[in-house]
Amino acid sequence: MHHLASRRAVLATALASAVVSPAVLAQGARAMPLPANWPNRPLRIIVGFPGGSTPDLTARTIAEPLSRALGQPVIVENRVGAGGNIAGDLIAKATDDHTIGVMINGNMTIARLLNPALPFDPLTDFAPISMIGTAPLVLAAPANAPGNTPAEFMAAARAAGDKWSYGTPGIGTVAHIGMELLKDRAGINPVHVPYPGNPQVITAMIAGDIHLSLLPPALVTAQVRAGKLKAIGVTSAGRSSLAAELPSLTEAGVKDFQLEIWNAAAAPASMPRPIVEHLSALISEIARSPDVRERLFQQGWQVTGTSSEGLARRIKADTETLGGVIRARNIKAGG
Hints:
single chain, 14 helices, about 45% helix, elongated
């Protein structure tokens, strides 16, 4: 154990420096025999969202140190469409042993439950590599929303029943499913209004067209500081370093409610296990290094850098929790 801690300390220091030796970084990988002559070409990271999106920024943040560790170029390729599911299908079907993906949690858990016609199944067609970062959502409301405390706001929401509405960036998104779960846990009943994306949700809420929404902290903070929105609380089990000034909804009296968004690296299920484990060790170590950790934090992520097994457990747990809501509400989404 002491040897492992020392090895990680050396690796973190190396990553934070201007020049990182691939030999030093490779020490973080598990000692599993790799196929001969791997890698023998550039590694491709497929991202299902456009440049500048959070999955894209994450992929590009890890690409350079991963390239140094592997001794091969790492190329980020954006294949946009269907809420990330076009990229998911490409990742699932890749057979070159040099293709992985950085995906959001919806693509790796509930995608097939929402759309049974999808040509891939995230539970069987992906090999989990590492969960990179997590973030809670923030329950936000217009600046003039009733209540001086989170508990008072929730009481007003319960009293309003279906006279209130909530916005999301689309049917089947984590914000949509999470709000339906919150309705059960908090005893509220706002009506769903889907929008093309979170910018439109924020605009509608500032205008008073909707009454509440679950949004990423990075999108809420600036609007709250400008006096345009009110932040009620975060959806993590306790307070989050991404919005340390905000209470959790548990503190507001909402019991048994926890919801996070996350991003992760995954490979095709066909990729040889030694390669998956090697990439898992490297990517988890890279994510936890001081320099990369800080860059990801600035992008709105709390770094986790899990093992492949840790990611597999989270996929199973989230699929069960969110899948239960999908089945209970009969939520269906195209894509």
